[in-house]
Backbone:
């Protein structure tokens, strides 16, 4: 088993002389996989139907000769300029009605038949030509599926999708609550995408448009996959992208790829970057059902905070890669290999920076490349987690499209906060779908799961009755999958929630803790009260409750807890805690323990076995250096 | 005489079984009026020309059987989806040229003939069918008239309106000062709405577009009113909406409705909500010329601060309704009766919240419903006010469309501040139009009345010379109704204003007070100086002046005063003050005194007569409980 | 030699009676030049082809009779309404696709043939009619060239311009780095303006669009100039406008005008207004190659801070005009003579304010008008400057269109900061183009010159080797004129820049100073280290370096210095310093020294000769009064 190491390689930006230097440097750095072709459409089909594969042949041959495998991309995320001129109806339209112009990337409507035809065409041509190339390790269909569109072609496809989903307009009208605001539909043709309108959009229409686009893009992916599969047996993937928008349902898409691959770009410069790294890796593992997955892209030398790129401190690049590997990634790849000389992303970090190979950054890349092979033995082992956090992208979409009682309600923030509380305690968690089998977990956490299906609610009841510890956060279980209000979890929790009290300021708890953002007037029907609000309009009312149900326990936390109070709850739930970021992998009787020290001081932890990076035996304890890491195999 | 109690009822969202429960709960709550049909167009005409009145018949019968009267709405504020498909030219266009899409509410251009035809059609059908229904108490035409549009159809109507207003292009060119920036019009066809343009718009063009839309919407209202009147003699109203935009001239519209009705939604969570409540109620009474009016909508359980709904504290819902009744409302109604299960406003507060009738909120609704009948005797009495504040929506529009010397000049804020100073002193004020007969008022306040007609300026002079006390605020009387600069009030005030000095920071006054936002280089020509600027570039120059003119006095306040200084001025002007929000009503020799205690402690005030809520006699004093109220009738 | 004094005069706003009063007041104020006609198109051609020059004849005659010369404008910046109706394709389109509407000013696309034809037509008609008018002193073509457009007509012209610039698509593809993101062009028709697109635009495409528009507008200017020149030998100018956007390359345009003229509107109320005044005047002198130029517009009585107009304190209006004259302006003109009664700019300050001539403002205008003739003798002398700051508008455009490593990188801010450091020390600086002959300067400063051509880089090397002191600021020399990364100045500086470290917070320097915004990992290859970073990730690394190269020195400052540290550097570089804003002019053996005191206390400075304002002899020292100025002629 091998761990992949490398990144996106866009050689069309340089002369062949640079290609040779690149392959030499890749060898030096231990690179064994590069993604080629993501942005090559205009270089391999400069004019409609005119293919110029020669340069790509040469690049693949060079890579193969250098021992570097290729993850070959279909270039369909960025059609060439001529495509937009010939098919102006395939340029995307925003919700405001602005028809975008070519000149960036990803500027197409995936509902346009012309686009879909062209995408299948170029994918087929590539598959036929390179199916048997010895460098080929994997197919990389498209790039970061995620662009949507509100044009008439998309509207037509949306209507088809709705017909399929609902069968009848009666059912759609009910699901969308169209009786409100005179929106009842009596003709399928009347339905439009949620474009700019006079006032608030219909929230279920909005959610369905998000669902539709995920499905539509998945159909586009499947088409290319089928075309590629017709020529090649190599694994096929696509790189999932995760940010503030997230247009596709990755948990659902995971079933369609041969390996889950993600791009991961933290957007904070401080310790938040490390928290996000663990979060993203655990999420990827959740999507892949616990199976190995692949970190397809990350930034080498810097973190993009939005306003500026924060250059990573010495050693930090490795400390962002190791957690991915620890948490199940089959390697660590970057965007991109060599920094662009020009173009829109010329300042995007790269493995070979503008300063060239004689640089701290490339030295760290080379060091990491030397470490990974020593860790390859973990590749097929399982990550050990006894806690699960529920994750459902539809809940996120629902909260983005609904005019909620507080604009600060933020699904991603709530889930990240829950994950962070465990991460800080060194406790590894899995992410699970609300309707997944949860029986293997001692603790299941449900942060702000606003939208929950009846089936998922029943699943949680079963989990608790069979002995699980369930912790439900505020604003959970409020609506069904049509976004119609009903409290699905109150029976299980043993409470009645009479009023929401969104908070502008913090509120005190009787325990000394604090709540923020949200509170609720909770009536403890069959639950015991664990903590109460102290002061404010809810003074003395329950804030945290706990109910015994069957063999298990169901907690309810009706506000956003401060970190310290949350840490106490984590301690009470798990009884454990680690001084460092810690991940355990297991296979048979063998355990591998990753420990990553993001602090300024060396930390000594108990350990016995062999430390894989150094190869040294460990007897009783191991020192994890400040800013470093240790991986110990124990039998 | 009855006080109305109830709210918007949108039964098409529920099954008939719920309707029965609704009527039962309405009886429990003392509800006697509900607004039905506001959003029912797609439910009563699901396909063009196909009417399905059956369900509405049933609802009205049920309500009537339950003793609940109906304010029946024409549903024209929200045409059904099919209307937009059949008449795409009737979808509104923003100033940026974005043609909006159906999917919210209020998405139509009121200038489109197709819309106007359809609106008359559905209004007529309703009027014919329900004119004689025994539940019918009132007609509610449309909902919150307020949407505008910049489409070619609107442009054509705008040109017609201008032709009517100005008669000739010469007159229009003069009014718009088109000699500046090469805007002279020599052809009516050249005139467009103030759409997005390269730089600043012509301020008079902007103001006229606002005037035009108010008139155009009024014409649309009149058409429906005529259609309804043809079938029914019941009173006809429409609900005025008041926010940051305010597209119609309510003072002018008031003459066209049988009863002035307003929607009122404060946008602050703190005491500002109570200040806004009194402000909104006084404004409504001003529009109705002192006659009774009706609070048609308010939110039951929460205040929308923009970022979040703030749940009203116990008792506060009543303390928001009582001031409306005290200040002249013929009742207290809410939007909406039962909280929606889904749709865009599912989290809008309701009389029956999601928690159902077994809830604090519904109990408070029921309590209020029991109190109102005890206050019904005040319904026809007059509100007593000896102070008037001038209000002119055209001035507001003018200040919104002109590039003023300071972007912080804000007409609404200035008027609210003036009202607040009196409210805090427990002094009731009326709002009056600048050209109204002011002779009954001891004090008239003119906050930032930037635009003033020559006639109104003369009216103020007459008022003062006849013995009135006039207080003019900064930046008043600057432009005429064409927005051409001339100082209309300086002779009356006895000052010359040589320079404007917009302020970034506060400025001290010699009296110890402070000014903010604005100051002026005032020369006291024939006025005495009451206070002076201290420090800054205007050090020693007059800040507040006072001139005796005929039998009266004209004050000028050239800056925005701090609250304490303003309170001193109120005390000097009125010589009175109350410890609580206090409103007096009078009819013949009978006086009713409403006292509302928004504080945390009981307050004892002198009173003799009968307290209406408790029915108890009062001899010398009454205790107004913390968070409560008392209404005493004295002979 | 005369100094011009006056302003824009838009008499079409008033009756002829006012014109007579205007000319009388102009005489009183010493006005000798007014700009007429800027916004007169609709007044002189109210209908297509129908000219009404009579009123303009009358105005010019009146002015001439009053001894006031005329700078006669072609009114092409604001076509009349009928033009937009007849040529809707000539209305401009934004990058978002919004077609703007008439109703402001400057609403046209300069690429539209109909517009160009009409502009030549009206310019020719004016030139023919007034070429021989005795009042005519100068032609003022158009006004503040600066509007751009993204319409199809502009796209066509852009493609033509690109064809001209690059010759071949291969060359364009290389320059634009189109190999990245699949943007390779194989057909000229595929190229579009950088309209709204899916994600980041191509930075070189963006830069070329800015270059194109500067050239296209210059072509439009040249057309009018040729038309005017065919009838008249009077000097021809156009007024350059400078703000946050700056659509044309003034340094390049300067070669095409007979006199460089600028509009100058500081946007800060505090001392920043004085800093900007000196900055703007020095920049204008730089564009004109050191030759006299003309301040065509400034605001009389107030400074526009964006949110509000800040009224200028007594004397400050003169203290904003004098620095312009000192720094090379042939006069001081204002927008506008008389404040408008209405229209979009009714609150724009004017020489005759709304308060009329009996006002402080007009008295100050009159006083300044009396001073200027006493200073006329300086008009042809040279400004003495031993320091040059490099300025290149293309660098600014490049930084506006590129996704830089920090969004806080701001070319204008960096150049202003450099200029401010010298201004505060009373040191006069020139602005120079990067490829200019720099040999006359003792010090050359290069603030954040991100884009630099190879030729300019060589020019700097020559400058240093010949004995110059060069100070290069952070983020300089990074890209070539195609925006392709290469460090052009590191050899000269003797450093290697391995990493950029954009800063969120300040960083300490070993010297005790502080850096902000930006830092770099600098390796001193052949440079000595002058200062180091202290703390942070770059602790101990070089912050400021200095290299001896030939007879000169090349400094590198890798961060944005705090003001105090920068002041120390200025002192070290120049060895001089003045307590006041000081400018020296020289002609032969005569020196004129302008000293302007922006402070609150009188300052005595050494001086000998004659003080021109008072006409008094000066022997050894002169007192510059608080808020005043002195101009001493020495032989």
Residues:
């Amino acid at each position: 088993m091998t761990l992949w190491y490398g990144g996106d390689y866009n050689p069309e930006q340089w002369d062949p002389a640079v290609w040779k230097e690149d392959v030499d440097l890749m060898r030096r750095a231990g690179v064994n996989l590069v993604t080629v072709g993501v942005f090559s459409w205009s270089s391999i089909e400069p004019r409609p139907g005119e293919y110029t594969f020669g340069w790509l042949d040469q690049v693949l041959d060079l890579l193969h000769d250098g021992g570097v495998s290729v993850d070959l991309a279909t270039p369909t995320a960025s059609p060439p300029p001529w495509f937009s001129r010939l098919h102006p109806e395939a340029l995307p339209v925003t919700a405001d009605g602005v028809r975008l112009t070519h000149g960036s990337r990803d500027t197409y409507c995936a509902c346009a038949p012309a686009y879909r035809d062209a995408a299948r065409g170029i994918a087929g041509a590539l598959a036929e030509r390179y199916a048997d190339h010895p460098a080929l390790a994997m197919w990389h269909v498209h790039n970061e599926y995620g662009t949507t569109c509100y044009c008439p072609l998309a509207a037509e496809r949306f209507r088809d999708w709705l017909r399929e989903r609902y069968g009848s307009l009666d059912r759609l009208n009910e699901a969308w609550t169209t009786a409100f605001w005179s929106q009842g539909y009596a003709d399928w043709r009347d339905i439009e995408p949620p474009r700019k309108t006079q006032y608030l959009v219909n929230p279920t229409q909005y959610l369905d448009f998000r669902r539709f686009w995920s499905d539509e893009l998945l159909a586009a992916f499947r088409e290319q996959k089928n075309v590629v599969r017709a020529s090649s047996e190599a694994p096929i993937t696509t790189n999932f992208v995760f940010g503030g928008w997230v247009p596709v349902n990755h948990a659902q898409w995971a079933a369609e790829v041969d390996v889950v691959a993600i791009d991961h770009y933290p957007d904070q410069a401080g310790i938040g970057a490390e928290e996000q790294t663990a979060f993203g890796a655990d999420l990827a593992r959740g999507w892949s059902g616990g199976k190995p997955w692949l970190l397809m892209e990350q930034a080498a030398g810097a973190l993009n905070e939005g306003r500026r790129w924060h250059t990573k401190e010495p050693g930090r690049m490795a400390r962002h890669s190791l957690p991915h590997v620890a948490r199940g990634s089959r390697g660590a790849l970057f965007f991109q290999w060599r920094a662009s000389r020009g173009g829109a992303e010329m300042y995007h970090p790269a493995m070979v920076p503008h300063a060239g190979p004689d640089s701290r950054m490339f030295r760290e890349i080379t060091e990491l490349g030397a470490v990974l092979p020593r860790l390859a033995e973990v590749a097929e082992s399982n990550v050990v987690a006894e806690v699960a956090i529920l994750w459902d992208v539809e809940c996120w979409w629902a909260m983005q499209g609904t005019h909620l009682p507080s604009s600060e309600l933020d699904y991603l923030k709530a889930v990240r906060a829950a994950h962070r509380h465990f991460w800080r305690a060194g406790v590894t968690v899995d992410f699970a779908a609300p309707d997944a089998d949860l029986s293997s977990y001692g603790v299941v956490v449900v942060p702000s799961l606003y939208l929950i299906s009846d089936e998922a609610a029943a699943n949680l009841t079963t989990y608790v009755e069979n002995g699980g510890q369930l912790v439900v956060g505020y604003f959970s279980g409020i609506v069904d999958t049509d976004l119609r209000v009903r409290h699905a979890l109150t029976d299980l929790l043993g409470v009645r929630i009479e009023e929401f009290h969104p908070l502008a300021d913090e509120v005190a708890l009787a325990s000394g803790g604090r709540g923020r953002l949200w509170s609720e007037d909770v009536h403890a029907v069959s639950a015991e009260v664990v903590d109460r609000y102290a002061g404010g309009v809810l003074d003395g009312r329950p804030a945290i409750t706990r109910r015994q149900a069957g063999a298990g326990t169901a907690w309810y936390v009706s506000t956003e807890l401060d970190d310290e109070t949350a840490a106490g709850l984590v301690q009470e739930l798990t009884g454990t805690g680690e001084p460092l970021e810690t991940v355990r992998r297991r296979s048979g009787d063998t355990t591998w323990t990753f420990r990553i020290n993001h602090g300024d001081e060396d930390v000594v932890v108990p350990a016995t076995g062999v430390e894989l990076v150094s190869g040294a035996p460990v007897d009783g304890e191991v020192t994890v250096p400040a800013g470093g890491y240790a991986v110990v195999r124990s039998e």
User: Anything to note?
Assistant: The first strand of chain A starts at residue 4 and ends at 9. Residues 4-76+109-147+235-380 of chain A form a domain with the TIM Barrel fold (CATH 3.20.20.80).
